[in-house]
Amino acid sequence: MIRTSFNDGWQVRPKVNPFAELSGRVVPFRPVRLPHDAMIEQRRTSPGGEVTMETAGGAYFPGGVFEYRKTFLVPEEFRGKRIFVEFEGVYRDATVYINGDYAGQRPYGYSHFRIDADRFLRFGEENVIRVEARAHQDSRWYTGAGIYRDTWLLVGEVVRIAPDSLRVTTPDIDGSRAVVEVATDVVNDSIEVRTLPVATEILDAAGTVVAGDVSKVTVLPGESATVRQRLYVSSPALWSTASPTLYDCRVTLGDVDEEAVTFGMRTLQLDPQHGLRVNGETVNLRGACVHHDNGVLGAATYARAEERRVEILKEAGFNAIRISHQPMSKAMLDACDRVGMLVVDEAFDVWISGKTEFDYSLNFPEWWERDIEAMVAKDMNHPSVIMYSIGNEIPETGSPFGAAWGRRLAEKVRALDPTRYVTNAVNGLLAVMSELGSLRQQRLEQAAKQGAGINTLMADAGDAMGAINSSQLVTERTEESFALLDVAGMNYAEARYALDRDLFPNRIILGTETYPTRIDGIWAMVEQYGHVIGDFTWTGWDYLGEVGIGRPQYATEDGRRHAHNAPYPYLVAGCGDIDITGHRRPASYYREIVYGLRAEPYIAVRRPEHHGRTWAGSPWAWSDTVSSWTWPGFEGAPVTVDVYSDADEVELISNGTSLGRRPAGAQHRFRTDFETVYTPGDLVAVAYRDGVETGRTNLRSAEGPVRLTVQADREVVAAKGGDLVHVDLTLTDAHGTCHTGADRVVSLEVSGPAELVGFGSAAPSTEEQFDGTEHTTYEGRALAVLCATGPGKIHLTASALGCEPVEIIVTAE
């Protein structure tokens, strides 16, 4: 079928009651270009009273019902053809009307779906499509709302290749050749028997045909037929994270239709001794859990924004992404294929037990199969996808009925795609939630025998989670739910890794979600145990919603416990290695060192205003540090400097004076700290192994007047297709050192063929929005995102108080 972008020409408004409009209340539509997040434009408000998971989870954005419409001409020559409108994602409870008539719906906000449109269309005339979407207390995180992913118009003949039906697998690969199996579904909506040739070609990265086959298919009226062809590629170039080589498969159905997909050739193996092997080599998954929102863009899914995230994550040392907790966008999958990033794609956060008032559990029993089918159809040809997750922290997994549901889902996935593995991100605590009272009593008795109180025994939430997950109760209640999987996904259950090696010798474990503060110990187990194939930190990239779970916190004088979530106007979770603008935080560099990917030490300075206070952050909270030696107003004040390193010892030098050497490396959790006073100038860390320097790094204080600098991620972008320019705005001194303590409002002006689609900072708590032309920097940085709207020169001018205006020019062609 011919696929054409359907993103232009839309309008949106908050939906109003039609009876209210009859009485005179008219809410006008306004033009938008898809993808579009209707929620990110809403004004957040303080909920008042107690902070709840629903309000804090959604970052205090209000829910709502949003109405989109588009008028489009259907040419007379389209009469007699099959026409579909495809939506890659609408959040949520999408209902579609064409020319006023109900045409279809999709409750789940993360599945792509198609509307069979031709029966409703008026050929040779203007047509109106209308989409309603609603979001209201239906998730534990920021979801966005509206038509937030791409839309497409599909036009084809009555005899055609069915969309999403071209499936390419490589069941047999050796050094000399690869067997490529191509399955194609051909649909016949006509009233006659049709026999057509099916020509299939495999093309390499240079566009050279390396294999081909032609066969005939006969399709009866009103039926479909599957064509299976085996092709053989000599000397195949295998896809891997280090060498993400891709091929194209092109299938031509007579002279009526053509489809093409991109795929990669690679092998997967799994066992408790060697772990996960890709192309015969063991790969430990250095994983990042990632939410679907794109920071200042909200939930709007632009292909370039997805690609940029994958690139930055890989540069930070990750080799795998677990999308959390819903199917990954097509754009991100494409990026993972190109960049070389492994993927665990996840289906659901709920099954039949709801977590919020109006979540997907209300629709799950009726829709789960169709949503599983959509996820697998989307993923089938992507070499980056190695595993499907059927759920996340599903409470039912601790019961026999929940295990039965898990088996249904797992077998459904296997029936659709037997070439990949199936996991489920199980949280043992949730699986035995109804039994926590008796479990708590057991721990109290144990604590009494040890002469300690329960608060002492479980002072750390991570220790409490570990104690519960390693209990006999969790072992028994989750046994079947783990046994039905290929890989036992475990959330915050590293306490089970060694235990299960003996209890369940055939069980293969993946840390599907873990605390970032424990990566050193966890990674040591990944490297030690063959049955533990990797770790996914919560989270690789910070996200909107679940506000403040990773925020810095300090002990209060009266001993009160801090709330799990932060109050308004907190905006982000605060637990990402990388902030919402794409800037790497200290935790990211620490992780890179633990992975063995960075030889240079890294300096992280604790904020001097909190010096001497007792840390009380959650297990998701990294230390309250900044890689900066610019602290105006704290001259002469005491300060703690952390140094991360895998070397035997590190030396810290302040303005040429050594502050001594201290041990570091794995035996000291890859870190050490120095107590000093803040004196502007240079701070240098030097790493030594066996007395020999192995690397050094330095921080320099910003000095003199503040300058505003701009840098675009690309000089040339595509004029069509919604291509983006990401522009970093930084306050620096004359030497380019970031002024982390001189934040101010930055104003933007954009001219040329582009629009500003997002502008903001990584400030964890703010009342500023992302849809304006002014925003305050955070730690000296902000990010502007421009979307090209046509060919020409795009000009962005930025100004800030006390700084010379700066301009950057990007070419769209």
UniProtKB/TrEMBL annotation:
Q: Which residues form the Glycoside hydrolase family domain?
A: 708-808
Q: Does this UniProt record's set of keywords contain Protein biosynthesis? A: no
The superkingdom listed in its UniProt entry is Bacteria
Q: Which Gene3D superfamilies does the record match to this protein?
A: Galactose-binding domain-like, Glycosidases, Immunoglobulins
The keyword Zinc is annotated on this UniProt entry: no
Q: Where is the DUF4982 domain?
A: 636-694
Give one Pfam hit by family name.
DUF4982
Glycoside hydrolase family 2 catalytic domain span: 276-427
Alphabetized UniProt keyword annotations: Glycosidase, Hydrolase
- Which GO terms of type biological process are on file? carbohydrate metabolic process
The protein's GO terms of the molecular function aspect are: hydrolase activity, hydrolyzing O-glycosyl compounds
The record places domain Glycoside hydrolase family 2 immunoglobulin-like beta-sandwich at: 169-266
| First and last residue of the signal peptide | none
Question: Which family does this protein fall into?
Answer: Belongs to the glycosyl hydrolase 2 family.
Q: Which PANTHER family match?
A: BETA-GALACTOSIDASE, BETA-MANNOSIDASE
Recorded protein name is Beta-galactosidase
